Amino acid sequence: MAAPHQKKRIVTFAEGKNMSTEKKLLSVFSAAFYQRVPADDLVGWKPNDLNIISGSMGAWALERKPGEPKVRVFTPEQKRDGWHVPHTVIQIINDDMSFIVDSVTAELAFQNLTIDVLFHPILSVTRSKPGRLESVAADKNRSAAAFAESCVYIQLEQMLTKELADKLAAILQKILADVRAANNDWPKLMGKMDALIGGLSGFSGFVEDDDLHEAQSFLKYLRSKNFTFLGYRSFRLSGGDGKTHSATVADSDLGVLKNNKSLYFGQSVDSPEVRALKRSSSPVMISKLIDKYSTVHRHVPMDAISIKIFDKKGRLTGMHLFVGLFTASTYSCRTSEVPIVRQKVRETIRRAGFPSGTHDRTALENILEKMPRDELFQMTEDELYAVSLGILRLQAKQRVALFTHIDPMQQYMSCLVYVPRDRYNTKFRLAAEKILEKSLGGKSTNYFTSLDDSPLARVLFTVRLGSKKVKSFDHADVEHQLIEIGREW
After folding, report:
1. How far apart are CA 252 and CA 238, in angstroms?
2. Is the pTM of this model over 0.70?
3. Which of 177, 233, 265, 451 is least enclosed, having the fewest CB within 10 Å?
4. Is 223 in contact with 193 (CB distance < 8 Å)?
């Protein structure tokens, strides 16, 4: 961790009668800046170095337009800034709200940028209408007229060029705009979901009772802090010229989907997502937007929750779309706690027909509990039955095996590869990834390895599909290739 070096004042203050006022304000800012920073974070810092950082942050905070983030990314230079550190620095001043720091740090991690120093005090401030800083205090000392501001100071291990620093600043501006949109529209998103939960009761004539109950329970489950709602959009399906058309409902967008942000979802009645929704017996469909990474909270593909809209005759006339992220609790809880998932698990166990308490019943239940949660969301009941029974057969004869399924929107194929632990290593994973990409004509977007007390290692590959290549996918041949590379290591 490099400390800053200073040879002259950080800020040139206005001359005359305002000089002492600004100096006092910066002094108060510096004191408040570290007041709630954990003591362990300040170990090893010299007081002068801390003053340099808080002074620079205070100067950056003096002016900020209401409702807008203020971001800069730069490498401090002695001549220009009055201090120097051989690392790129990020400074952010913004209204305090959820997801600021985790959204910023997720983007930095995505860009393989390493954080060396991070300070994030939340200060209580007052500003003039144009945005001039008038008073500041630690957040716990907030006055009635004050509001909370997040002050983020990040020092990277890397030193970026000016061009790269400017690009990063522009990206962070967009991220913070999405963070603000998601926060500002949170009450509307919750209101929309509440209305839909109540409205599903009107589907009783068009949807099987069990599917309807699970759908309502699932939406209530999402509402109970198990889903981070980030955006909403409504689509209308209408007839004309003997054809059916799909269109976004005007002014329906909320959160990160505002301002007609491109989503490539539901844009035509022939789109995979609309076809999948029509096929589904449930009024709710869960999917993954594999090409649409969240800019808020976590840099991962967003989850999509689609809800059917019926007319009085039970005809599908549109859909509601919520985008966001399942929370960690969804991935760590038991399957019996997640509606729709529990329905699939119950049906799989019923179809298998193993008596309660038997070895096969217990083993199958264990397999279903360990199944990646996203796979349980995406698989149909038939797919889950076939895959879980196939995995069960591996318990008796451990070998390299492949299980696949295409997501409902036909964007990607999930490939579960099982391999005896003593044959699994990085070389096997890389070779398996190449085989899958070549066979599917696609690109592996991520992988997750699971090593537990089982004698089999499991790797889940997500392969973005190429055009039409999946039709020629030879499952048996690909599995044979994987078996062969398993013998080589």
Report:
1. 17
2. yes
3. 451
4. yes
Q: Which structure tokens are listed for 179?
A: 């963070």
CA 332 centroid distance within chain: 16
Structure tokens at 212: 């309807």
The one-letter code for the residue type at 92 is I
CA–CA distance, 428 with 489 (Å, rounded to integer): 7
Going by C-alpha positions, the residue among 339, 380, 330, 372 that lies closest to residue 219 is: 339
Closest CA to 390 of 423, 363, 350, 358: 363
Instruction: Note the pLDDT tens digit of each residue in 76-87.
Output: 999 898 889 999
Confidence of residue 454 (pLDDT cuts 50, 70, 90): confident
Residue (of 367, 420, 371) closest to 397 by Cα position:
420
Tokens representing 285 are 């469909």
CA–CA distance, 339 with 275 (Å, rounded to integer): 23
Q: Using alpha carbons only, what angle is made at residue 383 by residues 381 and 389, rounded to the nearest 5 degrees? A: 100
The β-bridge relationship of strands 254-255 and 443-450 is unpaired
Where is average pLDDT lowest: 163-167, 393-397, 467-471?
467-471
Structure tokens at 29: 């800012």
Q: Give me the sign of the Cα torsion angle 9, 14, 19, 24.
A: negative
Strand ranges in 251-391 using DSSP code E only, listed in sequence order: 254-255, 284-293, 301-310, 316-326
What DSSP line would sit under 1-63, residue for residue? -PPPEESS-S--PPPGGGHHHHHHHHHHHHHHHTTTS-GGGGTT--HHHHHHHHHHHHHHHSB
What Rg value do the Cα atoms of the chain yield, rounded? 27
> Under a CB-based contact definition with an 8 Å cutoff, are residues 325 and 298 in contact?
yes
pLDDT of residue 64: 94
Task: Give the pair of three-digit tokens for residue 192.
Answer: 């929309």
Helix (H, G, I), strand (E, B) or coil at 380: coil
Q: Is the pLDDT of residue 485 over 70?
A: yes
Say if strands 5-6 and 83-84 run parallel, antiparallel, or are unpaired.
antiparallel
pLDDT for 14: 38
Residue entry with tokens 């096969």: 360
* 422 alpha-carbon distance from chain centroid: 34
Question: What single letter denotes the amino acid at residue 82?
Answer: G
CA 482 to chain centre: 31
Buried b / exposed e over 31-59, threshold 16 CB at 10 Å, is: ebbbeeeeeeeeeeeeeebbbbbbbbbbb
CA gap 253, 449 in Å, rounded: 37
Q: What is the number of alpha carbons within 13 Å of residue 402 lying toward its C-beta?
A: 26
Helical H segments across 200-309, by residue range: 209-221, 272-279
Q: Could you tell me how far CA 25 lies from the centroid of its own chain?
A: 38
